[in-house]
Amino acid sequence: MRKSRLDINQEVSIEITEGSHKGSYKSKILDFDKKFIELELPFDEDNNPLPLKKKTGLVIFFNTSTALYKFESAVKKRKKKPVYSLVIYNTDKFQRIQRRCFVRIPIQEEIGYRVVSYQNIEKKVDLVTDDKEFKRANTMDISGGGLMLALKDLGEITKGQMLEINLNFINLPINILNGEVVRVQRKEILNENSSTYLLGVKFVNIPKDVREEIIEWVFSKQRELRKKGLI
């Protein structure tokens, strides 16, 4: 018999797909069997348990040691004892999500970056720092797989260039991440008669726990933006 990908106390993200509480919420698995899964019931911003009705549609996201998965479900019932919990249907129809399918949200935050070169990215052998000081740029969006940067001056940066990125607007175990430029786009600003360069940057060789922190931050920010009607 195939071993379940689910575990007790496993952290998950709940995507509510309809109603006034539409958005993403953190939770964890309390119990499960072949038919049902019991989850911690998320609380709203006023610290009240979400009043989710029966048959409310949900999408559950969870990670294993090898991949990110999701599956669709619906609310069966809520429970108050011994803790507030949510019982949903266990469809066991898990869909593996490719890294490019990470949830991406628009966000404008200032970060630091500098151009670097590695002969071996994993061991960072023979580091050559072309720009000793971090330059400033603004993010345009971010996901667990990477981000987009907006630069006024492209300098010598081309596709394939390695960067060190000081991602200081998220509380991470480490702040300096490696990224590879996978796309370069020039954007004309007509009313200013100038150009901005957009860099698509893919995170490279970052620890799993750091990537998970970024994903959780994205889910939280996505919920906040949706409640404000910004996305």
From TrEMBL:
Taxonomy, superkingdom: Bacteria
Upper classification of the organism: Bacteria, Bacillati, Bacillota, Clostridia, Halanaerobiales
PilZ domain residues: 121-219
Matching Gene3D superfamilies: predicted glycosyltransferase like domains (2.40.10.220)
Residue ranges annotated for the Type III secretion system flagellar brake protein YcgR PilZN domain, each copy included: 8-88
InterPro entries reported in the protein's UniProt record: PilZ_domain, T3SS_YcgR_PilZN
Name of the protein: C-di-GMP-binding flagellar brake protein YcgR
Keyword Cell wall biogenesis/degradation in annotation: no
Alphabetical keyword list: Cell projection, Cilium, Flagellum
One Pfam family in the UniProt entry: PilZNR
GO molecular function: cyclic-di-GMP binding
